[in-house]
Amino acid sequence: MSTTKFSISIEKVAQSRLQDIDFSQLSFGQVFSDHMFICDYKDGKWQDPRIVPYGPFSVEPSLSVFHYGQAVFEGMKAYKDDRGEVFLFRPTENYARINKSCKRMAMPEFPEDLFDEALKTLVDLDRLWVQPGFGNALYLRPFMIATSPGVQANPSSQYRFMIITSPVQSYYKGQEVKVKIADHYSRAANGGVGFAKAAGNYAGQFYPTALAKEEGYQQVIWTDDATHQKLEECGTMNIVVRIGDTLISPPPTERILDGVTRRSVMAVAEKLGIAFESRPITVSELLEASEKGTLKEIFGCGTAAVVSPVAAFSYEGKEYRLPELKDSFAARIKEYLLNIQYNRAEDPFGWRVRV
Ligand SMILES: *Cc1c(COP(=O)(O)O)cnc(C)c1O
User: Fold this and answer.
1) Tens digit of pLDDT for each residue in 266-306?
2) In whole angstroms, what is the distance from residue 77 CA to residue 86 CA?
3) Which candidate, 92, 96, 119, places its Cα nearest to that of 109?
4) Distance of alpha carbon 317 from alpha carbon 164, whole angstroms
5) From the CB of 236, is ligand 1 less than 6 Å away?
6) 143 and 275 share a domain?
7) How far does CA 199 lie from the centroid of its chain?
């Protein structure tokens, strides 16, 4: 047992599982590293921050999170450079966002200094789980759940904040992504929780996404709930469209999650001299551009895949294909971002944080 500056107690595994893992055969988020962070909220304060071996814990079946879904999460990554140094990417953005999500879900904020210390201590302890090489990373999943026992429909008085970490390779590798534009289902509504990284937002997407899959489309492009005309998000990623030589992406609203990757893509585009318009874009504008041949690219952006190009989309039963480009904006921006994340280039924005 040892402790850190913020009195995080550390119980190390007796034996690491590292040598049992085949890092060339990882499917996303299936394998977890040796340790996890836990901190409990009781009697109005966060207490007993600790790092312990990754594993199950037992709780009562009446736990609030099981019944009312009071839960939020974050997704971020740790990257290793060629010399073995480990970096986080814009971690304070994730910290700010989890507290924004907490507020909307009537959950207590988590202290920033403890978030920072927990993240760095955990990643440092499991740094051998961060594999070197482009596309390899340690996916970090901070999350918070309501842990009061009892099925009263009230905000919980107890919470558990945890961080678990999972080694990953690049997401959606190689496979062509086709998407369906939503004309009935929605992921969010005005006044709702779409801007928060609330667990239930994902559960609500599973069924419509499964229906799209039956038609041969892996993801849904979500549209606004009122008119289904405004493009909102691409699956669990923000959406960017290229018409002519301009990138267009709907700005965050109450219904659209404010992605760190989207904001990073916007900044990189500006750096590369690519026009980027943060404004609403409609299905009609998309179809019109497709017919005129000015629709060049659609891509999703998010931490897991960074930038994920769309090969085709369907709308009202008709399929529209995107052209295959040699030097796409998506590829150029992705490379620029990866070079920053893996410390292979200057970081003019100051986004990298060494662990
Ligand atoms: C997490 C998430 C994103 C992407 O956010 P990043 O910060 O870029 O990872 C986009 N949309 C939704 C709905 C999300 O949950």
Assistant:
1) 999 999 999 999 999 999 999 999 999 999 999 999 998 89
2) 10
3) 96
4) 41
5) yes
6) no
7) 12
| Number of Cβ atoms within 10 Å of the Cβ of 194 | 24
Whether the per-residue pLDDT at 58 is higher than 60: the answer is yes
Q: Whose CA is nearest to atom 13 of ligand 1?
A: 236
For the chain, the domain total comes to 2
Task: Tell me, using a 6 A CB cutoff, whether residue 75 lines ligand 1.
Answer: yes
Q: How far does residue 286's CA lie from ligand 1's centre (Å)?
A: 22
Summarize pLDDT for 335-350 with one digit per residue, the tens: 999 999 999 999 999 9
* Test site for ligand 1: of 201, 257, 265, 351, most ligand atoms within 8 A of the Cβ: 257
| Residue among 238, 239, 333 to mutate when testing ligand 1 (max atoms within 8 A of CB) | 238
Model pTM score: 0.95
301 CA distance to ligand 1 middle (Å): 8
Q: 308 CB under 6 A from ligand 1?
A: no
Tokens 């678990």 found at: 164
Q: Is 257 in the pocket of ligand 1 (CB under 6 A)?
A: yes
What is the Å distance from ligand 1's center to 197 Cα? 8
In a domain, 350, yes or no: no
* pLDDT single digits (tens) 65-109: 999 999 999 999 999 999 999 999 999 999 999 999 999 999 999
Residues 122-179 have pLDDT tens digits of 999 999 999 998 889 999 999 999 999 999 899 999 999 999 999 998 655 567 899 9
| Domain around 65 | 9-169
Q: Which residues of 79-93 are buried (b: 16+ CB within 10 A; e: fewer)?
A: bbeeeebbbbbbbeb
- Same domain as 275, residue 255: yes
